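Structure first, sequence second, as always.
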């Protein structure tokens, strides 16, 4: 069983109180209206949960990734959309700025978070999802600026986020330098080359828009490029090193959703009677509940272990293991919880079908379960596992050189 410090227990209680009082009663409406829950996001901001992983010098709590995991589970249990808002504010994007940003970049990002912004990460393109390193968005140097051109999609928070972390292939004098990331702030009052495209109708977590984002000769000052160690050639790997935190956060949203569904199912089997006795008395259902509790606890332990792995960032292996397990186990828990509700689970007037839709994304977004398994296998085998048709031949060629 997970052991939290007294401080972490207090943090958990505070997050639970806020989430159950203010977010849970509105979760069905957020799903139905598909509207970004601005008022609830303001409550998260006021509670300090959007800035919690920022240093105290920047108005944060200097909280650890594990502290963030505690809050994300509680918030997601009440409202999955808000859980994702906390992930985006505390994990990947801000982690990259904290780790590699200049003082000015950190000031900029911290100011936006303090104002309640949920940053967006722009990696995926219509033709490059899992194969992210094949992205075609480019950033061409033009004096003190870069000119960004390309199309991103499935961008969480498109049209509501202000801070954007944009991955692009960087060119200086027409010569490719590697994949880097730029900070850019969208100002709705001053439209520029960052054009919010169509909203993508998503299956679940409908309170946050998923959109296309078009970069149309977007001019970004070179001071907004994240300077990662080893230069642009190593930048993608450096950025992904921090992105592992986002994966832990995403897995935790799945955990929160499934924990909520599980608790509702426990209440249901005690209250609902068939054959003259509570459902809870049927052994087949007792064992389902037992298995669900095991899956949840295992997911929680893996996620907390991943949050604490590495010296200051979750490591790739632990993050991939935790997100793969949590994504799949939590989907199964939600599916079983729906089964325990019978027809009521299938009704759109009850929460179970929402939980099942909400939890479905976590084996897809942020690295699919298959891609993450390949990352785990690569550590297990101690081998690079290139996925392109010519990858192994190229590796062998490099070894010969
Ligand atoms: C990494 C992949 C895109 C595969 O691409 P490649 O085969 O071209 O690249 P690799 O050789 O595997 O990696 C290049 C380089 O980077 C290092 N790397 C890669 N991933 C990590 C990581 N997670 N942690 C640390 N380092 C990493 C790798 O070791 C290589 O370094 P060396 O050159 O060997 O030193 C692909 O595997 C992949 O990850 N695809 C998924 C893309 C993805 O996650 N997209 C997320 C988009 S944002 C989003 O979905 C938000 C949703 S959310 O729920 O928050
Ligand atoms: C809800 C949601 C939110 C998202 N938010 C963001 C965001 O904010 N920013 C962003 O940049 N992106 C975002 N994404 C995109 C997400 O990162 C991609 O969907 C993901 O990386 C997978 O890419 P793809 O969808 O193109 O699938 P594909 O890469 O086309 O994969 C299709 C299938 O093939 C499998 N597959 C592919 N390659 C391999 C392989 N080598 N070995 C085995 N199986 C393989 C995959 O596992 C998958 O099952 C989001 C996606 C979703 C669903």
């Amino acid at each position: 069983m997970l052991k939290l410090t007294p401080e972490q227990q207090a943090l958990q209680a505070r997050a639970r109180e806020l989430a159950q009082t203010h977010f849970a009663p509105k979760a069905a409406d957020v799903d139905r209206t598909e509207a970004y829950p601005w008022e609830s996001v303001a409550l998260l901001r006021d509670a300090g949960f959007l800035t919690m992983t920022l240093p105290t010098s920047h108005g944060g709590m200097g909280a650890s990734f594990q502290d963030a995991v505690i809050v994300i589970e509680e918030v997601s249990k009440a409202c999955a959309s808000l859980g994702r808002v906390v992930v985006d504010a505390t994990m990947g994007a801000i982690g990259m700025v904290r780790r590699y940003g200049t003082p000015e970049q950190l000031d900029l990002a911290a100011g936006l978070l303090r104002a309640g912004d949920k940053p967006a990460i722009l990696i995926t393109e219509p033709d490059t999802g899992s194969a992210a390193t094949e992205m075609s968005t480019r950033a061409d140097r033009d004096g003190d600026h870069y000119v960004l051109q390309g199309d991103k999609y499935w961008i969480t928070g498109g049209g509501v986020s202000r801070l954007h972390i944009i991955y692009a292939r960087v060119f200086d004098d027409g010569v490719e330098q590697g994949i880097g990331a730029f900070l850019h702030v969208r100002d709705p009052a001053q439209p520029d080359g960052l054009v919010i495209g169509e909203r993508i109708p998503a299956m679940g977590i409908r309170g946050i828009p998923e959109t296309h984002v078009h970069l149309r000769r977007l001019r970004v000052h070179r001071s907004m490029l994240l300077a990662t160690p080893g230069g642009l050639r190593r930048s993608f790997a450096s950025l992904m090193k921090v992105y592992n935190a986002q994966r832990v956060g995403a897995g935790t949203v799945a955990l929160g959703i499934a924990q909520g569904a599980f608790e509702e199912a426990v209440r249901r089997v005690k209250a609902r009677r068939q054959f003259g006795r509570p459902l809870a008395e049927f052994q087949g259902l007792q064992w389902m509940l037992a298995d669900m509790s095991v899956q949840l606890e295992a997911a929680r332990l893996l996620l907390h272990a991943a949050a604490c792995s590495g010296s200051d960032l979750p490591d790739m292996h632990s993050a991939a293991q935790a997100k793969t397990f949590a994504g799949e186990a939590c989907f199964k828990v939600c599916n079983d919880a729906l089964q325990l509700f019978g027809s009521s689970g299938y009704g759109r007037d009850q929460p179970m079908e929402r939980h099942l839709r909400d939890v479905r994304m976590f084996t897809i977004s942020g690295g699919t379960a298959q891609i993450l398994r390949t990352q785990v296998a690569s550590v297990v085998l101690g081998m690079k596992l290139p996925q392109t048709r010519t990858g192994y031949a190229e590796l062998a060629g490099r070894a010969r050189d």
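Margin note: Residues 235-271 form the longest helix (37 residues).
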